[in-house]
TrEMBL record:
Domain Cyclin-like: 223-307, 320-402
Source species of the chain: Dendrobium nobile
Record InterPro entries: Cyclin, Cyclin-like_dom, Cyclin-like_sf, Cyclin_A/B-like, Cyclin_C-dom, Cyclin_N, Cyclins_cyclin-box
Domain of life: Eukaryota
Keyword hit for Cell division: yes
PROSITE patterns: CYCLINS
Family that this chain belongs to: Belongs to the cyclin family. Cyclin AB subfamily.
Gene3D superfamilies xrefs: Cyclin-like (1.10.472.10)
GO molecular function: cyclin-dependent protein serine/threonine kinase regulator activity
Domain Cyclin C-terminal: 316-433
Protein name: Cyclin N-terminal domain-containing protein
GO biological process: cell division; mitotic cell cycle phase transition; response to gamma radiation
Keywords: Cell cycle, Cell division, Cyclin
Length: 441
C-alpha cells in the first residue's frame, strides 16, 4: 500500500472514532498534484502523529501584561460572550452562598453553558478562533458542602414562605362565604392602602406655619368633635376622616382662630358625605356650634376645603388599618374596644402625627393586647399582616401607654368619658401597660 492510501485510512479512522470529519484539508496524492500541493501547517493534526485528537488550537502571541493575568483553562478558547457568561454565573453563585437564595440554579446554568460552548469551527486549512479574553478566578465557586447547605437553606425558606402564606390565608377563612368581605381582593386592597397612606399624612410640624392657632387649640377642637361625633351617633370612619381633613387643610392653609371651629364642623360634614348613610344637615352643625356661623359660611368653607385638597378626600386612615390588624390578631370585643380607645386618644395628640396611619393602628392593637394580658404579646401572624415587628412598635406604644395613664386627668377628657360608658365596655377603666414604660433604656 502506498503512502497516500495509508494516510487516507488514518483519516477514516479518525472520522469514525470522533464522529465528525475535518473539511477542506487535503490528504494523499489523489486529492491533487504533489507538485502544487500546499504543505500542511503544523497544527498537530497530521495523519499518523502521536498527538491525541482533537488537535490543539494555535495560540496567539501573549504580551507580558496578558501573562500576568489569570486565564481560564478549558477545552476551548474563552470568547467574550463565554467569559462574560461564566463571570456572571460565578458572581451569582458567590452571592447565593451569602444570601442562601437560589441555591443550585447558578451551578446548573454554568454547567449547561459549559456544555453548549465547547464546540469550535474548522474551515479550510486552519481553525479559526475568537479573541482570547482573560477570565479572573480570584474567588472560587462554592464547594460541595456549601452547595448542600444552600439547598437545605433554600428548602427551609420555601417551607417558611408556605407557612407564612398559610397564616395570612387563615385570617379570612371565617369570611370565605361572605361576599361583602371580598376575601379574594382584601389583600390587594390593603396593599394599595399601604402604598398610598403617605398621601394622607401631613408634616409633623405644620403648626409652625400657622400664625394664630397652635397645637393646644387643635387638641381642644378635636376633643370637642369627638363629643359631637358621639352625640350624632356617627360611624367610626367619619371621625378619623374628619381629623385627617382638618390636618391636611391646616397644613396648606393659614386659618384665623375664630374660623378654626368652622373648619372642624365643615370637615365633619364632608366626612359624613363620604361615610354616612344619613348625613347631618347643615342646620344641625350650626346649632351644635352654638350658631357661631351661618349657612353661607359653612358652604363657603366647604368649597375652600375641597379646592385646597383638590377633591382628594378619601385617604387611608388608622381606623381602616386597625380593623384588618384586629382580625389578624384574632381579637375579642374587649381588645377591639380598648384599641379604639387608645387610638382615639392619639387623635387629640399633635405629636402623634409623626407616625404613619398603619403604625398607629398596629401599635394600638399591640398596646391593647399588652394591657389586657399583662405581658408583651405580638404573634407572627400579626407581624406578617402589619409588616411591623414588636421592636418597631415599642416607641409608639410607649407613648400610647402614657396617654392611657393620663387620659382621665386634665381638661380634655372627651375620649375618656366616651369610653367610660357601658356602650363601649368601660374600656377607659382598664389598666395601662405600665411595664412597657419600665422597659425603656
Amino acid at each position: 500500500m502506498d503512502m497516500g492510501a495509508e494516510k487516507q485510512n488514518d483519516v477514516m479512522k479518525s472520522e469514525n472514532s470522533q464522529g465528525f470529519r475535518m473539511v477542506g484539508v487535503k490528504y494523499g496524492r489523489e486529492m491533487g498534484s504533489s507538485d502544487n500541493r500546499r504543505a500542511l501547517r503544523d497544527i498537530n493534526n497530521l495523519a499518523g502523529s502521536n498527538v491525541p485528537y482533537p488537535p490543539k488550537i494555535i495560540k496567539k502571541v501573549i504580551t507580558e501584561d496578558e501573562k500576568n493575568k489569570q486565564s481560564f483553562v478549558g477545552r476551548r478558547p474563552i470568547t467574550r460572550r463565554f467569559a462574560a457568561s461564566l463571570a456572571q454565573n460565578s458572581q451569582d453563585c458567590l452571592q447565593n452562598v451569602s444570601t442562601r437564595a437560589k441555591p443550585i440554579g447558578c451551578l446548573v446554568q454554568a454547567r449547561n453553558q459549559l456544555v453548549q460552548d465547547t464546540s469550535f469551527a474548522c474551515t479550510g486549512d486552519a481553525i479559526y478562533e475568537e479573541e482570547h479574553v482573560a477570565f479572573p478566578i480570584d474567588e472560587p465557586l462554592p464547594m460541595v458542602e456549601d452547595t448542600e447547605e444552600m439547598i437545605d437553606c433554600g428548602m427551609k425558606e420555601v417551607e417558611m414562605e408556605d407557612v407564612e402564606a398559610k397564616l395570612l390565608e387563615d385570617i379570612d377563612i371565617c369570611d370565605s362565604d361572605n361576599t361583602l368581605a371580598v376575601v379574594k381582593y382584601v389583600n390587594d386592597i390593603y396593599s394599595f392602602y399601604r402604598e398610598t397612606e403617605e398621601l394622607g399624612c401631613v408634616p409633623p410640624n405644620y403648626m409652625s406655619t400657622q400664625f394664630d392657632i397652635n397645637e393646644r387649640m387643635r387638641a381642644i377642637l378635636i376633643d370637642w368633635l369627638i363629643e359631637v361625633h358621639y352625640k350624632f351617633e356617627l360611624v367610626e370612619e367619619t371621625l378619623f376622616l374628619t381629623v385627617n381633613l382638618i390636618d391636611r387643610f391646616l397644613a396648606r392653609q393659614s386659618v384665623p382662630r375664630k374660623k378654626l371651629q368652622l373648619v372642624g364642623v365643615t370637615a365633619m360634614l364632608l366626612a359624613c358625605k363620604y361615610e354616612e348613610v344619613m348625613v347631618p344637615v347643615v342646620e344641625d352643625l350650626i346649632v351644635i356650634s352654638d350658631r357661631a356661623y351661618t349657612r353661607d359660611e359653612v358652604l363657603q368653607m366647604e368649597s375652600s376645603i375641597v379646592n385646597t385638597l383638590q377633591f382628594n378626600m378619601s385617604v387611608p386612615t388608622p381606623y381602616m388599618f386597625m380593623r384588618r390588624f384586629l382580625k389578624a390578631a384574632q381579637s375579642d370585643r374587649q381588645i377591639e374596644l380598648l384599641s379604639s380607645y387608645i387610638i382615639e386618644l392619639c387623635l387629640v395628640e399633635y405629636e402623634m402625627l409623626k407616625f404613619r396611619p398603619s403604625m398607629l393602628a398596629a401599635a394600638a392593637v399591640y398596646t391593647a393586647q399588652c394591657s389586657l394580658k399583662g405581658f408583651k404579646h405580638w404573634t407572627r401572624t400579626s407581624e406578617l399582616c402589619t409588616k411591623y415587628s414588636e421592636v418597631q412598635l415599642l416607641d409608639c406604644s410607649r407613648m400610647m401607654v402614657d396617654f392611657h395613664q393620663k387620659s382621665g386627668k386634665g381638661k380634655l377628657t372627651g375620649v375618656h368619658k366616651k369610653y367610660s360608658t357601658f356602650k363601649f365596655g368601660c374600656a377607659a377603666k382598664s389598666e395601662p401597660a405600665l411595664f412597657l414604660l419600665d422597659m425603656r433604656n
